[in-house]
Amino acid sequence: MKTKFSALVVALMAVGAASMASAATEADLERSFFPYKNGVPTFPGLTEGTVLTAKNVDQFKDTLDPAMYDMVKRGWTEMTVGKTTSFDMNKPYVEASRANMNKTKLGPKLGDIEGFVAGRPFLDEPSMSDPRAAEKIMWNYKYGVNWGDNATISPFYWKYRNLATGQVDKTLKVHFNFLNFTHRVEHDPKPNVPGNASNLFRGIYMTVESPPDLKNTQLLIQRYEDDAKRDDAYLYLGFQRRVRRLATGQVTDSFLGADLMIQDFEGYNDRLSAYTWKYLGAKTIMMPYYYHNNLQLAEDMPKEADGYKFVDFGGQGGCFQKITWQLRKVYTVEGAPVDPSPIGKRLLYIDVQTNTINRSVIYDKKGEIWKTFTIGKAHPDAHHPVNKGSGIPIDDSFSLVDLQSKRCTTGQFKGLIDPKLSPPAKFQVQFMRGGD
């Protein structure tokens, strides 16, 4: 009995120690937000302008995640290397992180957090010896800059493609709005949106503009401050003129016929406690970070009145962005769903500087690669003029390739950091009934 009691005490002490935020310092903050201040990662033979192809990819295999390596090796796509650069982060967010350093700690169980105010919750370097390191990384993701306090994507073109033939089966024109209800650091109202009786943390609102059979379809996701509370998600079908609440399991269904799920949005779109997390370590790999205005952009897309042009696509089936890639430091996190799911696990490659998920690999229940997701990240100073100086790296394109069905969904869009476009009223069910 004494031995069992001692073991229990040791276990509880270990959990308690892991739950506490390390005593982060100003040096930790600098490392977290400015990882390339004293130099950028390098790899033998990998220089700006190098093109990774099926012929030379084995030489650079260690700089690619397994799915990306496989697709280049098959000759489906090529990768042009860009110069690794700092994507300096939003200044109010960095200052909030400094002001609230060491105030946050993990609670006793997955999904619990205590003392968080604003900014990046955990600034210390993750440790392989910390059993809860992955949770801290995921909290940094959840409370990351992402789109800032509020932003919009308009327009956003989704194309459903055949990977083998390149045929585009359907094109959707949609727009997205994003709003943080709490922990706001830059735009009024701050720090919180008033009247938030439900204690929501974040809202995502989407409207389909075309094609006609889906016009005015709307999706509303409400994420609660309490991670133990499941998201509320509502779908408005224009042809039925009614709102219906989505069942929990529908976040892992194909969304509107696309190859992605609601849970795939932004790399991972769900509660932290919906998965168990494991930290696999830090590494440097090729990530889809680029300067939008320096790319050769698409000429076959609808023209925008402000002259904005979209990222172009090519490669096998037209499923791959024509962008440049940077060698960047990432944290690798493995997630396994808690509830029944068609997903076996996710491998998330989380950029250390931005704490966003721009490469992920999704495995099926048999442990085989099912889908691979690339979200292109554009520097805000070389994108739309409204984004210049925001310090908010812009999600700018996506490619989700289903390796098993040989299909893909691609995204070309214009993201705008403009708080006026995402008022709180848009993120209520009553707004869906009224339309846009």
How would you sum up this structure, described in words?
The chain is globular. A hairpin with a 7-residue loop joins strand 7 and strand 8 (218-224). With 436 residues, it is an alpha+beta fold. It is 14% helix and 33% strand. The strands form three sheets. The protein has a 16-stranded mixed sheet that branches. A two-stranded antiparallel sheet has the order 3-4. Residues 1-21 have low confidence and may be disordered. The N and C termini lie far apart (66 Å). It has two domains: 2-33 and 91-142, no CATH class; 150-434, Clam (outer membrane lipoprotein receptor (LolB), chain A). The longest helix is centred in the first third of the chain and has 18 residues, at 2-19. The chain is built from six helices and 20 strands.
CATH topology of the largest domain: outer membrane lipoprotein receptor (LolB), chain A
SSE arrangement, N to C: HHEHEHEEHEEEEEEEEEEEEEEEEH
Query: What multimeric state do the chains show?
Result: single chain
What is the molecular shape? Answer: globular
Sheet/helix structural class: alpha+beta
Mean pLDDT: 93
According to CATH, the homologous superfamily of the largest domain is Lipoprotein localisation LolA/LolB/LppX
